[in-house]
Amino acid sequence: MIKHFYIFRHGQCPFNVSGHIQGQRFNGNLTAEGRRQAARTAERLKDKHITLIVSSPMKRAMQTAAIVAGRCGAPILIDHRFIEVNMGIVEGMHISAVEKNFTELYDRWRHDKTGNVRFMFGETKSEVRRRILQGLNHYAENTPHPNIGISSHGIAISQMLQHFNINLCDIPNGAVLHLSYSSPNWQYQDFLS
User: Fold this and answer.
1) What is the dihedral of CA 79, 55, 157, 85, to 10 degrees?
2) What are the start-end ranges of the E strands in 89-137?
3) Active-site residue numbers?
4) How far apart are CA 18 and CA 164, in angstroms?
5) pLDDT tens per residue across span 63-98
6) How does residue 169 score in pLDDT terms, banded at 50, 70 and 90?
7) Apex 33 CA angle, 32 and 35, nearest 5
8) What is the CATH number of domain 3-192?
9) How far lies 66's CA from each of 49, 60, 81, 147, in Å?
10) What DSSP character marks residue 58?
11) Dist CA 178 CA 164 (whole Å)
């Protein structure tokens, strides 16, 4: 049986507007625009026959999941594997401060092809990719749901794309990544921004 996964980025939240790095420590709610983006994502997914939504535990992802679930009529499960990257010591900093104070490290982290660069106390992109793929494989192999929605985050989604050799760093709020699974193979289908 082929299973379909619709992985969507949460709607806009205050740190997306202010230019601060959220990571895992800053747990903001959706803005009014973020709720509109989530509603557009829900409209985009309403005919995909989603029977389960899995969400990161962050408020912005759970609120987006709730809006999508309301349109699709699916229950929500929380799974920490789909949380955003831990950015370590730069969480909460404005991007301009990170670019000024961690110039070389930020440039290496942003353009890292190895997935092994991290900020102090943070995760590498390869660690993010590993836990997300572990989560995807769990739901692909251990649940009966043929169509699953996943509410996650920008860097998490970019790392799923990286697994399929698609380099896209900046994932728009509300964008949807569509993957299919037929044991044991994953297939990239499309990306809707």
Assistant:
1) -50
2) none
3) 10, 84
4) 31
5) 999 999 999 999 999 999 999 999 999 999 999 999
6) confident
7) 65
8) 3.40.50.1240
9) 16, 10, 18, 17
10) S
11) 12
Average pLDDT over residues 106-113: 88
| 128-137 core/surface letters (b: 16 or more CB in 10 A; e: else) | bbbbbeebbe
Torsion angle of C-alpha atoms 150, 155, 159, 165, degrees rounded to 10: 110
What number is the average pLDDT over the span 55-61?
97
Cβ–Cβ under 8 Å, residues 10 and 53: no
Residue type, position 132, single letter: I
The dihedral sign for the CA sequence 9, 157, 18, 58: positive
Q: Quote the Cα angle for 146-67-162, to 5°.
A: 55
Amino acid, res. 27: N
Q: Which residues contact 58 (CB under 8 A, 6 or more apart)?
A: 10, 24, 27, 83, 84, 153
Separation of alpha carbons 87 and 91, rounded Å: 6
Q: Is 190 exposed, middle or buried (0-12, 13-18, 19+ CB in 10 A)?
A: exposed
Identify the helix (H) or strand (E) that includes residue 69: helix 59-72
Average pLDDT, the chain: 94
| Model confidence pTM above 0.70 | yes
